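Re: [help] complex structure
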Amino acid sequence: MARTGRRPGNQDTRQAILSAARQAFAERGYDGASIRQIATSAGVDPALVHHYFGAKDKLFLATMEAPIDPGEVIPKIFEAGLDGVGERLVRTFLGVWDSPAGSSAAALFRSALQHEWSARMLREFLVTQVLRRAIGHLQLDPAEAPRRAALVASQMAGIVMVRYILKVEPMASMSQEELVHSIAPTIQRYLSEPLYSPAPD
Amino acid sequence: MARTGRRPGNQDTRQAILSAARQAFAERGYDGASIRQIATSAGVDPALVHHYFGAKDKLFLATMEAPIDPGEVIPKIFEAGLDGVGERLVRTFLGVWDSPAGSSAAALFRSALQHEWSARMLREFLVTQVLRRAIGHLQLDPAEAPRRAALVASQMAGIVMVRYILKVEPMASMSQEELVHSIAPTIQRYLSEPLYSPAPD
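Output below.
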């Protein structure tokens, strides 16, 4: 469960809020869900939701039982801009996934795929907590940014699948350095080079 | 279920063979499992396994309920060699996954992740039926080939995850042409260019 730095509070109340939040996020998506609705459906005051979980993004992290807070990791990768972003992204990503938090993340990824609603939660998490934050740090053409972010996500999700979930060799045991050198140029290209191959003369 | 072109035969016997085969492949892997052991454990003659399912790779496909036979698709992509392989791979891959067979494949992919044994089956399938066949068609340095294949697999598995399973926009609705142009250079680089960035002078 994501650490919020707040005291645990009444467990039944917390669970009621989490359960209402999970349903709200799955049904209405992250943007469509509101703290007010979640509080109403849990039978508590909205102030109590804020008190236990903080802002909506923290509540969403707690609902997902996310072992990592993208709000902490993503600025380190993207704040410095496009120069070298591929290498920073792959290196940071592997650092997190090769850590104990990575095992929790892999379990989350696996179980999220079992139901339509939990897959939707994972999609919402990826889009609103990861991709949207990342794009926010980069100076990209707004017409291209979501496509570039999705291409990056496809390469990184594939590493999760092949290295951490299916554990296909040799990728499961390749060193971080080896993977950084191999994959960083892909990410760099998806983010900073023209997406279309020029037509031959 | 993979079509073998053979008559269905006795359903109980077929199911007994499939069940024994599933266990054998999950426990011993594709290479470690033998038709003879599978027949013994199903209580039938090995000739009957051949009669119903054909060779071991076809039995494995049937066990996986694979909607696509990699033995038919892969030569079309790789037989012509490295020149243009990135484009042929992405185009063929999207053609298959955007077809009705793709929905079955996505369901298979999802359910395979739910258990350790079924994830192992999917890994075995990927390694022995897809990557090994693909490598077999290309003239690659044997010391690098498995790593190159795993890198390609990571990009393609990520497309499965983002486009077909999580259905993240805009990737879920990007045209095949757009994806071919964006992703083919990645595949081409993983297969045909030096994997390491040269150190600067």
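The CA atoms of residues 67 and 77 of chain B lie 18 Å apart.
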